[in-house]
Amino acid sequence: MTKRKLDGIVAKGLWLYVLAMGIFHLYTAVFGAFEAYLQRAIHLTWVLPMVFVVYPMFENKKSAQSQTAVPWYDWCFAVVSAVPGIYIMLNYNMIVERMIGVDEITAIQLILGTIVVLALIEATRRAVGLPIILVSLAFMGYCMYYMMTDIATQSGTLGNFSLANFCDWFSGAFKLLIEEMYLTDEGIYSSSLGVSATLVMIFLIFGGFLENSGVGEYFMEFAQAFTGTQAGGPAKIAVVSSCLFGSISGSAVANVYGTGTFTIPLMKRIGYKPYFSGAVEAVASSGGQIMPPVMGAGAFVMASFLNVPFSRIVVAAILPALLYYAAVLVMVHLTAKRDGLRGLPPEELPEKKSVLKRAYMMSPIILLVYLLLDGYTPMYAAIAGIVLAWGVSLPNPKRRMGPKGILRAIHDGAKGIPVVCTACASAGFVLGAVALSGIGPKIVSAVLSVSHGIPVLTLLLIAVVCLILGMGLPTTSAYILAASLSVPALGQLHFNSIAAHMFVFYYAIISNITPPVALAAYAAASIAEDSPNKTGWAACRLGFLAFVIPFAFCYDGGLLLQLDWTHNVISIVSGVALVFGIGFSFTGYCGGRIPMWSRVLFAAFGLASMWKSSLVSLGGTAAIFVLYIFCQKVFADKKASSAI
């Protein structure tokens, strides 16, 4: 969404406001957060006024004034939106001691609860977009209908409709809804907002330190030095750099603009078609959110939902993420070999020796991963990573972070919170409505009824639901919505809980590259200057593995490294076979251009390698290897005969 280009005293004041917010969250990360409901209320109270100042009510491209000045009504919105949170801070003990559903909600609480609901809806519309608001309103509307019907039934007035009775039904239901959304930790201030108020905020600040210390720039140089001269080098630079950078960022679109402005022109320069160049960047940037350790904040939410150690999510996510990126690298490599696309000249790229001498720049990420896997909390690991990111900046005079640099890093990280915060808070509308109305079991029953309880059909149906929910939503909020509605259905079919959540998470992510609403692909298309739909469909082909792997790990726990070593190794080998099988099939190249029957066989054997039966899986893997040897021999014989 468009942001105002503020200047003067307003810009300076906002800079200090965001800095203070970042410092507060750093303080609570180091010395301990407040009780959950209070911490979340403070977090949202800090963010809402910022949204009304930064994001205009309407995008008016004709009027520069609407983008640079804050109108009086937005100042009013900013002030009013903070009042409900301030009330919670001042009356926290009274609120937590009241009995939900027993103590009557007061008039002031009803008014303030209504204000925060309306303010959050408008703030989310501005910062995130309309889709999540429509979903939230639909669930709250159903919740109101359900509670009005329940009130009418209990009072014995259900069959006696009148305006007075309707007002009584509506009033009673509305009070219950506002109480759930405002005065409990199951609505707006639910666990989804808690993730934003603690983990996401700290990791955004960690990202700010990575950028300001030069670690982010080093990621790009590392990718350039080790992949730039190879066939299709710029495309591989895009894949590797987006993989490294994307895990920290929570937005696929932000990843595209962060790395794509450099990589897409390079890909076009060596001969990749514009739409393919955009597709490579879109797929690579979207995949960053499935790459541990951070996974764009999704891993934190998942660990919270599953109530498992964060390290379990990291371990489960690593193999599918590596296979995803391996598939993209294989396809861009084979496309480059097929079309005769070379890499960049060595003189245009950083020297490998120079890059390796600064390998210590990777240490903040390495430390983060080590601490997470060693059982330390994500907050502790992030703080340690921040300190080390500051430390690695010291040897470089251009990047050395003094007091000003540290404050700038805190600000640069904290300023990215509005989108995540408002999306997570709005997801609380759905969670609260589900809790109040009991619609969750009904959705589970509907899914199982339509699919007749057939596991594969259930997975297909949930995949479609996740893709639809993910259209236009940030990954984290799309995952929260999809998980709350879909995962219980998979649980009924006895799928592993981590696999079920990972399935939903994957499809929430790949909605970014799936037309008709593929935000990452559209962002890349704008840089590549080609058709958004063409770019989107090309991205779907490149990211095909992301559509297949979730089905596979629902049946094969080895892909999530959840089984014994023997089965895990078989899953790794078959996963690698799938990568090459799909790569050869989709590009039509295996040492040379292969006929259609070979492409069909490569695809079929690749899918067979992911079968839940180890025997079939190993058979498919062996068949891919044999077919590969056959193709290599055919083209070697052709070259020998042409030489004669």
UniProtKB/TrEMBL annotation:
InterPro entries, per the entry: DctM (IPR010656), TRAP_DctM-Dct_fused (IPR011853)
TRAP C4-dicarboxylate transport system permease DctM subunit domain span: 115-553
Protein name in the entry: TRAP transporter fused permease subunit
UniProt superkingdom: Bacteria
Keywords: Membrane, Transmembrane, Transmembrane helix
Positions of transmembrane segments: 14-34, 41-58, 70-90, 102-121, 127-146, 190-210, 290-307, 313-334, 379-396, 417-439, 459-482, 503-524, 536-555, 567-589, 609-631
Record Pfam families: DctM
